[in-house]
Amino acid sequence: MTLSVAVAGASGYAGGELLRILAAHPDFEIRTVTAHSNAGHPLIAHQPHLRSLAHLTLQDTTPANLAGHDVVFLALPHGTSGEIAAQLPEDTVVVDCGADHRLEDPADWEAFYGGEHFGAWAYGVPELPVVATDGTVGKQRERLVGARRIAAPGCNASAVSLALAPGIQAGLIEDEDIVAVLAVGPSGAGKSLKTMYLASEILGSANPYAVGGTHRHIPEIQQNLRKAGAAAPTLSFTPVLVPMSRGILATSTARVKPGTTAEQVQQAWEAAYAGEPFVQVLPAGTVPRTSDVLGANTVLIGVALDEAAGRVVTVLAIDNLYKGTAGAAVQSVNIALGLDETAGLTVNGVAP
């Protein structure tokens, strides 16, 4: 049975990546695409690479236009999707690719976003290690089965969380004094015309931003690490814009507990993601590049023990638009609906 799909925010980067994946999905049919200021335009005018969808025209982003579909993806700015989602039928699977439904604590939302808190939905990182209240070890995947409301992750948040959660869950690293520095492509910020994203500002330069604990993905990462077993994680998080259109290279470090060996570290990360179709831990002594995951739903992780510093060092590569956003959304919907989890998704990147 083919399921009908609508994508809101279809003229943006995240919306375009969703459409690229969905266009090749065996179980979905894209019937409606919507936008705000670009409503009335042919989709192809804003997503010229999506030739198979040239027949579609952008409609207004309204609950009426989105209702009546089996699945609705919302690729909208924060503070926008919550109001729209509240007006959609309960039996519709709705995926928010924005931030409105990621944070469980209203105080976190108020501190980092502000405005109305719309409540947390099932979190869309299936591979995230979690520890239940009874101590049972599992994955976020189980919490997505049958879900009708799904919050796709922040791309930076999923990168740091997947990089460190195995060490937390295995009891090998401390949850205080975690440090993460990320090289990120500007596509994660969307198509908004801001000076800091202009080519003349980015090319030939590395540009730190949201320095000093102000980035909005910090509470999301802390929330994820608590799910993996951390008590009160503290995090220094610094993203750096670099001149690549897409991709994240996240270098995350944490203090190891006394007596931890390099072999234990490697084994813990390999065990955490054993059998996962999209998350792969590289052999000891190997680290990934962003080019290795370009255009794929793949997460590559290299892990090492810095014995002199007493810290574990993880290097994780992810495509922020694919696995960081759109791929995670589609993968989560596949799980929620009982489809093949890998349907429509690829582990093969694009090179050079």
Automatic annotation (TrEMBL):
Chief site of localization: cytoplasm
**Which residues are catalytic?**
C155
Q: Which InterPro entries match?
A: AGPR, AGPR_dimerisation_dom, AGPR_type-1, NAD(P)-bd_dom_sf, Semialdehyde_DH_NAD-bd
State the protein's purpose: Catalyzes the NADPH-dependent reduction of N-acetyl-5-glutamyl phosphate to yield N-acetyl-L-glutamate 5-semialdehyde.
GO molecular function (one): N-acetyl-gamma-glutamyl-phosphate reductase activity
Residue ranges of every copy of the Semialdehyde dehydrogenase NAD-binding domain listed in the record: 4-136
Pathway(s) of this molecule: Amino-acid biosynthesis; L-arginine biosynthesis; N(2)-acetyl-L-ornithine from L-glutamate: step 3/4
Which organism does this sequence originate in? Leifsonia virtsii
What is the name attached to this protein's record?
N-acetyl-gamma-glutamyl-phosphate reductase
Q: What's the family?
A: Belongs to the NAGSA dehydrogenase family. Type 1 subfamily.
Q: Which Pfam families match?
A: Semialdhyde_dh, Semialdhyde_dhC_1
* EC nos: 1.2.1.38
